[in-house]
Amino acid sequence: MKIEERKLKISDHEFTVKGYWLDQISDFGKPVDYPVVIICPGGGFTFHSGREEEPLALRYNSFGMHAVVLEYKLIGDTPVYPMALQEMAKTIDWINQQPDSMHIDKDKIILAGFSAGAHIVAAYNGIGPNPTLRKKYQIERYKGQHAAVILGYPVIDMTMKDSFPDDDKVLHEISTDESLWKSQELLNKDSKPAFVWQTRTDDLVNVMNSLVYVEKMVQLGLPAEFHMFGSGIHGLGLATYVTKKPGKDKYLNKRASGWMDLSLTWLEMMNLLGSAY
Questions:
Q1: Which domains can be identified in the chain, with CATH numbers?
Q2: Where is the BD-FAE-like domain (predicted)?
Q3: How many CB atoms lie within 10 A of CB 203?
């Protein structure tokens, strides 16, 4: 496996992506092009959670997927949006520019977002495939499309009461464009299939976030799968000892840890994983 860190640029703005690229397996006797997952970690738009970066990337690797971690724009001198959308589009474009020798199946680009990072993925699932919205958010010059999204304990509707961000100042630091506050309202007939999971007792992001997104997917007739686990805290990551914070057993959740296998089975069902074999 090859691990690389690259700096990508949009005008004078620079951001980091980390690639976890699979090697070919000589015993196969012929080259295999692997799907790739772009991971947007959580962190409340103030940091990128390491618990949702390499541990998830390596897990995806183990199931025959390349992985790229996108360290998107955080709250700062300017709002997170629309730059975060442009970073995603640029990352997809960068993947599409990779040579054939990288053996990437560019028709199988999966976006996986967690918590705040899931808001970027959820919003992009409405904007990225739609020509009108691509032009509005100045991403039409970038090439490539994603095929599906995976959302873990996602921030979807940032206006929802008793849920992140629950603070008008932070909300405007994330986006001054009100049309981006409710990512479920960005969904349209061009949006891609979605796998969504969350716990019923999430104390930071109200589980209704997941429900309103899935409801909108169903209304539009789009493929979707949703798993709500009965208990568990926010930010579980893999929900195993791999992403457990030291001394904090609340980050262990045997039932919720099944989300990864469920999502991979879903990708197989959607013909986005495993068909190369």
A1: 2-269 (3.40.50.1820)
A2: 33-216
A3: 11
